[in-house]
Amino acid sequence: MIKIMIADDQQLIRNSLKIILDANPNFKVISTVSNRQEVLDSIKKEKPDIILMDIRMPKMDGTVCTKYVKEKYPDIKVIVLTTFDDDDFIFSALKYGASGYLLKGVSTKELYNAINTVEHGGAMINPNIAEKVFKLFSKMAQSNYAIQVNDKNTKNFSKHEWEVIQQVGFGLSNKEIAAKLFLSEGTVRNYISKILDKLQLRDRTQLAIWAVQTGVTSESFGDKDD
Questions:
Q1: Fewer beta carbons within 10 angstroms: which end of the chain, N or C?
Q2: Cα 69–chain centre separation
Q3: How far is CA 36 from the centre of its chain?
Q4: From CA 105, how far away is CA 102, in angstroms rounded?
């Protein structure tokens, strides 16, 4: 059972999302809140697995609230669910540790899929903003938001691991990477889990930024050994 918190300042949206999510037997909405303070107070009472976070909320926007949550509760996954596809919002959400960024026009099936994907360690980006995401990873890599890893930990990566890292850097989902590299989604998920462990990175957003800032996204791996 995946425990979900809904954070949105509009009661109609909160109620509608609760009905949609509670209809899935694998999900349980444990709380609905409307601002940052309610988010933090509710987490203390009953820790959710995933928070669906709106951008525009009173007292603090959802991206900064994501930062507060991830700093104090790194195991809680955050999916930003908003009407805004503004570059700055996407940039901030990913920088602060959001595992997903979806627009409110997504279907029920897409929302279910996003929650399941994020819960299992993946990331879910709305297809309409995938191109923006790669550009934002580039922007983050060129800013002072640099990801540091021990170079020794990269020495034994296989060709497939480098290819997966590259596609993560492009902002692709596990499903898209699997199709592109002719692998199963489970295999891609396992690769990413092992890569994150080897590099001691928090999540795939950090991996994507590292891939961009180190030039992995512009390399060819055809001559590397498997």
A1: C
A2: 14
A3: 20
A4: 8
Distance, in Å, from the CA atom of 137 to the CA atom of 125, rounded to the nearest integer, reads: 13
221 to 9, 11, 218: CA distances (angstroms):
47, 50, 10
Alpha carbon distance 176, 160 (integer Å)? 15
Q: What is the mean pLDDT of the chain?
A: 86
pLDDT, tens digit, 9 for 90 and up, residues 72-109: 998 999 999 988 777 777 878 887 888 888 888 889 99
Amino acid at 68: Y
For residue 174, which amino acid is it?
A: N
pLDDT band at 213 (very low <50, low <70, confident <90, very high): confident
How far is Cα 82 from Cα 101, in angstroms, rounded to an integer?
Answer: 8
Average pLDDT over residues 67-76: 90
User: What pLDDT shows up at residue 223?
Assistant: 47
What are the chain's domains?
Answer: 2-125 (3.40.50.2300), 142-218 (1.10.10.10)
In whole angstroms, give the CA distance from residue 155 to residue 101: 32
Q: Residue 224 burial (CB < 10 Å; 0-12/13-18/19+)?
A: middle
- Find the range with the poorest average confidence among 9-23, 25-39, 119-133: 119-133
> What is the rounded CA–CA span in Å between residue 97 and residue 58?
21
